[in-house]
Amino acid sequence: MGDVRSLPVPDGLEGERLDAALARLFGFSRTRAAELITSGDVQLDGATAAKSDRVHAGAWLEVVIPPPPAAPVPVAEPVPGMRVLYEDDDIVVVDKPIGVAAHPTVGWTGPTVVGGLLGAGHRVATSGAAERQGIVHRLDANTTGVMVVAKSEVAYSRLKRAFKERTVDKRYHALVQGHPDPLRGTVDAPIDRHPSGDGRFAVVAGGKPSVTHYDTVEAFRAASLLDVKLETGRTHQIRVHMAATRHPCVGDLMYGADPRLAARLGVTRQWLHAASLSFDHPVTGELVTFTSDHPDDLATALERVRAES
Protein backbone atom coordinates (compact mmCIF):
# COMPACT_ATOMS: atom_id res chain seq x y z
CA MET A 1 0.00 0.00 0.00
CA GLY A 2 1.37 3.42 -0.90
CA ASP A 3 0.78 6.88 0.55
CA VAL A 4 -2.78 8.22 0.38
CA ARG A 5 -2.96 11.89 -0.58
CA SER A 6 -6.27 13.76 -0.14
CA LEU A 7 -6.90 17.32 -1.25
CA PRO A 8 -9.50 19.52 -2.92
CA VAL A 9 -9.01 20.26 -6.63
CA PRO A 10 -7.50 23.79 -6.85
CA ASP A 11 -9.41 26.53 -8.72
CA GLY A 12 -6.69 26.70 -11.38
CA LEU A 13 -7.47 23.15 -12.55
CA GLU A 14 -11.21 23.73 -13.11
CA GLY A 15 -12.34 21.84 -16.21
CA GLU A 16 -9.04 19.97 -16.76
CA ARG A 17 -9.01 16.27 -17.67
CA LEU A 18 -8.28 14.15 -14.60
CA ASP A 19 -5.02 12.69 -16.00
CA ALA A 20 -3.73 16.19 -16.85
CA ALA A 21 -4.78 17.54 -13.44
CA LEU A 22 -2.97 14.69 -11.63
CA ALA A 23 0.14 15.21 -13.74
CA ARG A 24 0.19 18.90 -12.81
CA LEU A 25 -0.58 18.37 -9.13
CA PHE A 26 1.92 15.61 -8.46
CA GLY A 27 4.54 16.04 -11.20
CA PHE A 28 3.73 12.65 -12.78
CA SER A 29 3.92 12.06 -16.51
CA ARG A 30 0.47 11.85 -18.18
CA THR A 31 1.16 8.14 -18.80
CA ARG A 32 1.86 7.51 -15.10
CA ALA A 33 -1.26 9.46 -14.10
CA ALA A 34 -3.38 7.39 -16.53
CA GLU A 35 -1.95 4.14 -15.10
CA LEU A 36 -2.95 5.15 -11.55
CA ILE A 37 -6.46 6.08 -12.69
CA THR A 38 -6.88 2.83 -14.66
CA SER A 39 -5.73 0.75 -11.69
CA GLY A 40 -8.45 2.36 -9.52
CA ASP A 41 -6.05 4.31 -7.29
CA VAL A 42 -7.80 7.65 -7.85
CA GLN A 43 -11.16 8.75 -6.47
CA LEU A 44 -13.07 11.97 -7.11
CA ASP A 45 -15.66 12.82 -4.45
CA GLY A 46 -15.53 9.21 -3.25
CA ALA A 47 -16.12 7.60 -6.67
CA THR A 48 -13.64 5.87 -8.97
CA ALA A 49 -13.03 8.15 -11.94
CA ALA A 50 -11.95 7.77 -15.59
CA LYS A 51 -8.89 9.55 -16.98
CA SER A 52 -10.98 11.63 -19.39
CA ASP A 53 -13.33 12.90 -16.64
CA ARG A 54 -13.19 16.66 -16.17
CA VAL A 55 -12.39 17.88 -12.66
CA HIS A 56 -14.16 20.72 -10.86
CA ALA A 57 -12.66 23.13 -8.38
CA GLY A 58 -13.29 22.01 -4.80
CA ALA A 59 -14.01 18.36 -5.73
CA TRP A 60 -12.33 16.03 -3.23
CA LEU A 61 -9.46 14.09 -4.76
CA GLU A 62 -7.97 10.96 -3.16
CA VAL A 63 -4.90 9.36 -4.72
CA VAL A 64 -3.04 6.25 -3.57
CA ILE A 65 0.59 6.79 -4.60
CA PRO A 66 2.35 3.41 -4.77
CA PRO A 67 5.83 3.11 -3.26
CA PRO A 68 8.61 3.64 -5.82
CA PRO A 69 9.90 0.40 -7.38
CA ALA A 70 13.06 -0.95 -5.78
CA ALA A 71 16.20 0.29 -7.53
CA PRO A 72 17.61 -2.40 -9.80
CA VAL A 73 21.08 -3.76 -9.04
CA PRO A 74 23.77 -4.29 -11.69
CA VAL A 75 24.13 -7.85 -12.99
CA ALA A 76 27.85 -8.59 -12.88
CA GLU A 77 28.59 -10.28 -16.19
CA PRO A 78 31.09 -9.40 -18.92
CA VAL A 79 29.69 -7.40 -21.85
CA PRO A 80 30.82 -8.72 -25.25
CA GLY A 81 32.46 -6.03 -27.36
CA MET A 82 33.05 -3.55 -24.51
CA ARG A 83 36.74 -2.64 -24.65
CA VAL A 84 38.72 -1.04 -21.85
CA LEU A 85 40.71 1.84 -23.39
CA TYR A 86 42.55 2.81 -20.19
CA GLU A 87 42.64 1.87 -16.53
CA ASP A 88 44.51 2.90 -13.38
CA ASP A 89 43.69 2.87 -9.65
CA ASP A 90 41.18 5.72 -10.00
CA ILE A 91 39.43 5.53 -13.37
CA VAL A 92 38.52 3.06 -16.09
CA VAL A 93 37.70 4.31 -19.60
CA VAL A 94 35.60 2.09 -21.86
CA ASP A 95 34.56 2.06 -25.50
CA LYS A 96 30.85 1.38 -25.08
CA PRO A 97 29.17 -0.80 -27.70
CA ILE A 98 25.61 -0.50 -29.01
CA GLY A 99 22.76 -1.84 -26.83
CA VAL A 100 24.48 -1.29 -23.48
CA ALA A 101 23.07 1.11 -20.86
CA ALA A 102 25.37 3.00 -18.49
CA HIS A 103 23.71 1.53 -15.39
CA PRO A 104 20.55 -0.44 -14.55
CA THR A 105 17.24 1.40 -14.57
CA VAL A 106 13.67 0.29 -13.99
CA GLY A 107 12.53 -1.44 -17.16
CA TRP A 108 16.01 -2.04 -18.65
CA THR A 109 16.90 -5.73 -18.76
CA GLY A 110 19.89 -5.52 -21.11
CA PRO A 111 23.63 -5.31 -20.33
CA THR A 112 25.15 -2.32 -18.51
CA VAL A 113 28.58 -0.72 -18.32
CA VAL A 114 28.68 -1.10 -14.52
CA GLY A 115 27.65 -4.78 -14.70
CA GLY A 116 30.15 -5.44 -17.48
CA LEU A 117 33.02 -3.92 -15.50
CA LEU A 118 32.10 -5.79 -12.31
CA GLY A 119 31.71 -9.01 -14.32
CA ALA A 120 35.18 -8.61 -15.80
CA GLY A 121 36.68 -8.14 -12.33
CA HIS A 122 37.11 -4.35 -12.29
CA ARG A 123 36.49 -2.41 -9.10
CA VAL A 124 34.19 0.62 -9.32
CA ALA A 125 33.49 3.39 -6.82
CA THR A 126 30.56 2.75 -4.48
CA SER A 127 29.59 6.42 -4.01
CA GLY A 128 26.18 7.49 -5.24
CA ALA A 129 23.09 5.31 -5.65
CA ALA A 130 23.81 1.57 -5.55
CA GLU A 131 22.73 1.00 -9.14
CA ARG A 132 24.89 3.86 -10.41
CA GLN A 133 28.20 2.82 -8.89
CA GLY A 134 31.06 4.87 -10.32
CA ILE A 135 28.87 6.47 -13.00
CA VAL A 136 29.78 10.16 -13.47
CA HIS A 137 28.16 10.64 -16.91
CA ARG A 138 26.06 8.54 -19.26
CA LEU A 139 25.60 7.61 -22.89
CA ASP A 140 22.24 6.42 -24.25
CA ALA A 141 22.04 2.63 -24.63
CA ASN A 142 22.32 2.92 -28.43
CA THR A 143 24.97 5.65 -28.48
CA THR A 144 28.47 4.18 -28.76
CA GLY A 145 31.84 5.53 -27.73
CA VAL A 146 34.05 6.78 -24.93
CA MET A 147 32.83 6.72 -21.34
CA VAL A 148 34.78 7.14 -18.09
CA VAL A 149 33.82 5.34 -14.87
CA ALA A 150 35.25 6.21 -11.42
CA LYS A 151 37.02 3.45 -9.48
CA SER A 152 38.03 5.39 -6.37
CA GLU A 153 35.76 7.56 -4.21
CA VAL A 154 37.99 10.62 -4.72
CA ALA A 155 37.80 10.16 -8.50
CA TYR A 156 34.01 9.86 -8.27
CA SER A 157 33.53 13.14 -6.40
CA ARG A 158 36.07 15.09 -8.50
CA LEU A 159 34.79 13.80 -11.85
CA LYS A 160 31.16 14.46 -10.84
CA ARG A 161 32.18 18.04 -10.09
CA ALA A 162 34.15 18.36 -13.37
CA PHE A 163 31.12 17.26 -15.43
CA LYS A 164 28.85 19.57 -13.42
CA GLU A 165 31.22 22.53 -13.86
CA ARG A 166 31.59 21.72 -17.59
CA THR A 167 35.38 21.40 -17.50
CA VAL A 168 35.24 18.08 -19.40
CA ASP A 169 35.64 18.30 -23.19
CA LYS A 170 33.03 15.95 -24.71
CA ARG A 171 33.16 15.53 -28.50
CA TYR A 172 30.66 13.57 -30.54
CA HIS A 173 30.32 12.77 -34.22
CA ALA A 174 26.78 12.92 -35.56
CA LEU A 175 25.52 12.20 -39.06
CA VAL A 176 22.45 14.41 -39.46
CA GLN A 177 19.90 14.75 -42.22
CA GLY A 178 20.30 17.66 -44.61
CA HIS A 179 22.67 20.59 -44.15
CA PRO A 180 22.56 22.74 -41.01
CA ASP A 181 22.50 26.46 -41.71
CA PRO A 182 24.83 27.98 -40.60
CA LEU A 183 27.36 25.17 -41.18
CA ARG A 184 28.87 25.93 -37.77
CA GLY A 185 26.79 27.14 -34.87
CA THR A 186 25.36 26.77 -31.39
CA VAL A 187 21.96 25.50 -30.30
CA ASP A 188 21.04 27.06 -26.96
CA ALA A 189 17.57 25.81 -26.02
CA PRO A 190 16.17 24.40 -22.75
CA ILE A 191 15.35 20.68 -22.59
CA ASP A 192 12.90 18.73 -20.47
CA ARG A 193 10.70 15.66 -20.75
CA HIS A 194 8.32 15.74 -23.72
CA PRO A 195 4.79 16.64 -22.51
CA SER A 196 3.47 13.36 -24.00
CA GLY A 197 5.22 11.38 -21.23
CA ASP A 198 6.37 8.79 -23.80
CA GLY A 199 10.06 8.81 -22.82
CA ARG A 200 11.15 11.44 -25.32
CA PHE A 201 12.71 14.76 -24.41
CA ALA A 202 12.06 18.07 -26.14
CA VAL A 203 12.90 21.77 -26.25
CA VAL A 204 10.52 23.09 -23.60
CA ALA A 205 10.20 26.61 -22.19
CA GLY A 206 11.39 26.49 -18.58
CA GLY A 207 13.42 23.29 -19.19
CA LYS A 208 17.03 22.81 -18.11
CA PRO A 209 19.53 25.10 -19.85
CA SER A 210 21.19 23.10 -22.65
CA VAL A 211 23.94 24.19 -25.03
CA THR A 212 25.28 22.26 -28.05
CA HIS A 213 28.07 23.53 -30.37
CA TYR A 214 28.37 21.91 -33.80
CA ASP A 215 30.68 22.19 -36.80
CA THR A 216 30.14 20.58 -40.22
CA VAL A 217 33.08 18.28 -41.01
CA GLU A 218 31.78 16.91 -44.32
CA ALA A 219 28.61 17.61 -46.33
CA PHE A 220 26.99 14.91 -48.46
CA ARG A 221 24.00 14.99 -50.79
CA ALA A 222 21.53 13.72 -48.17
CA ALA A 223 23.31 14.36 -44.87
CA SER A 224 26.12 16.13 -43.00
CA LEU A 225 28.78 14.77 -40.67
CA LEU A 226 29.08 17.05 -37.64
CA ASP A 227 31.67 17.43 -34.93
CA VAL A 228 29.63 18.26 -31.82
CA LYS A 229 30.86 19.70 -28.54
CA LEU A 230 28.50 19.40 -25.58
CA GLU A 231 28.58 22.18 -23.04
CA THR A 232 25.81 20.62 -20.93
CA GLY A 233 24.93 16.93 -20.74
CA ARG A 234 21.15 16.54 -20.79
CA THR A 235 19.47 13.25 -21.64
CA HIS A 236 19.21 12.90 -25.47
CA GLN A 237 20.63 16.45 -25.79
CA ILE A 238 22.25 16.18 -29.25
CA ARG A 239 19.31 14.16 -30.58
CA VAL A 240 16.77 16.72 -29.30
CA HIS A 241 18.73 19.78 -30.41
CA MET A 242 19.41 18.45 -33.92
CA ALA A 243 15.75 17.41 -34.30
CA ALA A 244 14.70 20.90 -33.15
CA THR A 245 16.77 22.42 -35.99
CA ARG A 246 15.04 19.99 -38.43
CA HIS A 247 18.25 18.00 -38.90
CA PRO A 248 17.70 14.86 -36.79
CA CYS A 249 20.47 12.28 -36.47
CA VAL A 250 20.20 9.78 -39.33
CA GLY A 251 18.34 6.69 -38.10
CA ASP A 252 16.88 8.42 -35.04
CA LEU A 253 13.26 7.45 -35.70
CA MET A 254 12.28 8.45 -32.14
CA TYR A 255 13.09 12.05 -33.07
CA GLY A 256 11.64 12.20 -36.56
CA ALA A 257 14.41 10.85 -38.81
CA ASP A 258 13.47 9.52 -42.26
CA PRO A 259 13.11 5.71 -42.06
CA ARG A 260 13.83 5.35 -45.81
CA LEU A 261 17.21 7.05 -45.54
CA ALA A 262 18.07 4.93 -42.49
CA ALA A 263 17.13 1.74 -44.37
CA ARG A 264 19.13 2.80 -47.43
CA LEU A 265 22.23 3.37 -45.30
CA GLY A 266 21.64 0.26 -43.18
CA VAL A 267 21.38 2.20 -39.90
CA THR A 268 19.20 0.69 -37.14
CA ARG A 269 19.82 3.35 -34.46
CA GLN A 270 20.74 7.02 -34.21
CA TRP A 271 24.04 7.81 -36.01
CA LEU A 272 25.76 9.30 -32.97
CA HIS A 273 29.14 8.41 -31.49
CA ALA A 274 31.07 9.73 -28.47
CA ALA A 275 34.35 10.20 -30.30
CA SER A 276 36.55 11.72 -27.59
CA LEU A 277 36.71 12.73 -23.95
CA SER A 278 39.35 15.07 -22.43
CA PHE A 279 39.61 15.99 -18.76
CA ASP A 280 42.09 16.64 -15.98
CA HIS A 281 42.86 13.31 -14.30
CA PRO A 282 41.03 13.47 -10.94
CA VAL A 283 44.14 12.46 -8.96
CA THR A 284 47.25 13.42 -10.98
CA GLY A 285 45.73 16.60 -12.46
CA GLU A 286 47.29 15.73 -15.84
CA LEU A 287 45.17 16.42 -18.97
CA VAL A 288 44.13 13.07 -20.45
CA THR A 289 42.35 12.43 -23.77
CA PHE A 290 40.67 9.23 -24.94
CA THR A 291 39.28 8.58 -28.41
CA SER A 292 37.15 5.96 -30.13
CA ASP A 293 36.81 5.11 -33.83
CA HIS A 294 33.41 4.78 -35.49
CA PRO A 295 32.01 1.27 -34.98
CA ASP A 296 31.25 -0.88 -38.03
CA ASP A 297 27.57 0.01 -38.47
CA LEU A 298 28.23 3.76 -38.42
CA ALA A 299 31.37 3.49 -40.57
CA THR A 300 29.47 1.47 -43.21
CA ALA A 301 26.63 4.02 -43.30
CA LEU A 302 29.16 6.84 -43.70
CA GLU A 303 30.81 5.04 -46.64
CA ARG A 304 27.39 4.56 -48.28
CA VAL A 305 26.32 8.21 -47.91
CA ARG A 306 29.75 9.30 -49.22
CA ALA A 307 29.46 6.96 -52.24
CA GLU A 308 25.98 8.36 -53.03
CA SER A 309 27.28 11.91 -53.13
From TrEMBL:
Highest rank taxon of the organism: Bacteria
PROSITE patterns the UniProt entry points to: PSI_RLU (PS01129), S4 (PS50889)
Protein EC: 5.4.99.-
Job of this protein: Responsible for synthesis of pseudouridine from uracil.
SUPFAM superfamilies given in the database record: Alpha-L RNA-binding motif, Pseudouridine synthase
Residue intervals of the RNA-binding S4 domain: 16-74
Family: Belongs to the pseudouridine synthase RluA family.
Enzyme class, first EC level, given as a word: isomerase
Reactions it catalyzes: a uridine in RNA = a pseudouridine in RNA
Record keyword Transmembrane present: no
Pfam families: PseudoU_synth_2, S4
Keywords, in A-Z order: Isomerase, RNA-binding
Protein name: Pseudouridine synthase
InterPro entries registered for this protein in UniProt: PsdUridine_synth_cat_dom_sf, PsdUridine_synth_RluA-like_CS, PsdUridine_synth_RluC/D, PsdUridine_synth_RsuA/RluA, RluA_PseudoU_synthase, S4_RNA-bd, S4_RNA-bd_sf
